[in-house]
Amino acid sequence: MRLFEGILIVVHILWLFSFLFRFDAKVKMITNITALIFLIIHLVLEGYRWQMGLTYILFILLTVFTIKPIERKKNKSKIKKLLYILFIFTYSISSFGLVTVMPVFQLPNVSGPFEVGMNARHLIDESRKDSEQNVREIMIQIWYPADVKKDAKDIQYESFPYEEWSGTMEFIFSVPRYFFEYLKYGQTNSIKDAAVSKQEDQFPILLFSHGYGSTRMQNFSQMEELASQGYVVVSIDHTNDAAYTKFPDGREIMNQTDAYSYSFDIEDEKDVMMRSKDISFVLDQLTMINEKDPLGMFTGKIDMDKIGIFGHSYGGSTAAQALLDDSRLSAGINIDGPLHEPVASIGFDKSFMFILNEDYLYIPEEELQYTSITPEEFQKYHEKITELADFHYKEGIKGDTYMLTFAAGDHYTFTDFPFLSPLLSWNLDVNQFHQVMNQYILAYFDHYVKGEDLEPLLRKERKEDKFYDFKANIKND
Q1: Which of 38, 189, 274, 346 has its CA at a distance of 20 to 30 angstroms from the CA of residue 85?
Q2: Which pTM value belongs to this model?
Q3: Mutual orientation of helices 3-20 and 25-41 as an angle, nearest 10°?
């Protein structure tokens, strides 16, 4: 809840009580003027949002009743008073409830030594066709270490990417995007098109692949944290597979499939292969940008010899496939995703980390009814992907392997979803969850991408308050 939202709601509650107890007309008018002042401040400094709709409507009604009072009988019944009190109580709960359950939030501050810059690029792969037989177009988002003058007073941090997120929410929940427009008031730590830091000659690359029916913006806070630690982080929208993609010319592409049409077949590698080709294409483009950036930002600043990849859900599957397909990638992380063929059968020689939830991709029966799979079929699938993760951690993948398993949260806790509402992080310290996850991701990439010494954090198995388990299988020490 924002400051003036809260003040405005409280003023309206007091205003309602002034009618209940028949305060002097001057008191009502003073309250009316006070409400008007805070309403203007709220709209100018914070901006309107539909969650405050009850307050906006009530302001109009109470203003009318204040200016033109309604004549009332002196013998006001107890029942009417009770109903009036019930109305005040209902308004209070509803108003505070809406702005609390759907808050305007700020992403966690970054902990690295660098400020974070952000830049979007529109890439066109003329060698491939998409499902509509057009050239394949891809949007990428780049977060990177930035230089900002210490005495700069006009730093403008970017707002939360509400268009991509509202489009994604519309795809998943079939709710009009308007209901999520308020996300634009969320604050980030990213500065649009800031100068790339000169503190280091070059920075290594981390590529990110989103989940099925999601968005390249799904792990915004994580991208910022890794960029603040000295990485150029590139998140890719897999067009048509993403929930929603918007191009610079205003064109919008929505995922045309059903949100629950995900394939529960480890041998179904079609989309994973397409995504892996996206990864290789983006690497080709980054190579060209590093040689001569048309925008003059990244020329010579990207270390194309130090590249890692990670992804969430289907993006984790993509990370594994890309490691098999593209020799430029040195290490990868699968965040709560299954392994598909051919990786499921043959593995690869590079290092890999599994970051999973204790209920690894488990779907309860009440949700399975929306999919095309029966509970019995899903049980076999779930047993198979669990066995595959365990097998590849132990021996299937020849490089060093690690497994970080959380005993809290769910599949979407690995993304920025929990920051959107306290209902999505109920009984969970989401900041601690993300701190632990990012701590291990950073230690892993620092060694296998940057080439730094292996931290003690990754060398031994450890537990902490039953919050997570960590296992290390170092095969090439």
Answers
A1: 38
A2: 0.93
A3: 160
